[in-house]
Design a protein that fits this description.
single chain; alpha+beta; 2 domains; 13-stranded mixed β-sheet; 5 helices; globular; RNaseH-like_sf; NurA domain-containing protein
Length: 331
Amino acid sequence: MPDTVTATRMRFTVDPWDPSYGTGLDAESGDEGAVSEATVDATVELAPDRWAPVPPDPAVRPPAATLFVDGVRRIDAQAWVESGDGTAAALCASYAAGVVCCAGERAEPTAVRVARSLLTTAPEAVDVETPAGRYDAVVVPPRADLAPAQTLGLALQHRLGEIEVEAATRAREAGGLPEDDLLVVDGPLRGRQHLPRALGYIKTHRTRYLPPALDPVVAALAPGERTPVFLLGTSWRRHTWYLRLPTAPGSPWAGVVRLECSAALAAGEAAAMAALSQATLARYASHGYKDSRAPQNLYPIGGLERLLRRRLGDAGVVYRALRRAAWRPVS
């Protein structure tokens, strides 16, 4: 039977199914599909009939400091909260974000923050105290166009994005960084495009955005080369380009990543950011004997991910703490 607690303000139930085996909610769903409805302007840097691989500019030097921002999340338990309208689905989740500052030969983590939340559409939800820490109640407005699992999953991703921005801001506000530092966000830049000198770093490709006539340019990229910059519009707009990291010969998209920068930048500024990405990222590319996601999983990002996952605590211990908490009154 599920573990349940009854209180004057909230009834909180934890599913006995270990979330490490998946959950019935499937809150990880909602990934973008393979068919793109994006608008593409391929004329930002070069006319489409002049598109060709862009080699690195030897005059461009990497910044004195590069900041890598990443976050991780984990669903600790599926839960339910009794609401006036019945029982509402909930997620107990832990998430963390931080920054690795790479300057010279040094790489130092900073601005690390860990948070835990109980996300639900039930307005009666309150914070849950457990031996592993407090789960702050986050009431998520229901959406008619999404299933509850997707609604809660998007809310969790939004919370993670918020602490990633907070980590990046704190790292820069701490001082001691050169004025030309570069911020590399692991994942799309959406919600972070206001950050100065920032790039979004996308390792995987669920969708091919370029027109079919320009796709061969990606396949023709040599290590260190990139495509020209193009403007991409979905539910938001950004400048973007593809870059091939150092890698052994393989499939046409082996070692290819996609970079993003703000659409508010002028075309020349976006091209300068693209050239800076070429000069900066290759040195951090991982190797296959150390990382199964090589070369796209950059060493600073991989190291930060491991640190953040340790900070989340042992999943089994956290899960058992939530089940124990479900036997105590929640006020």
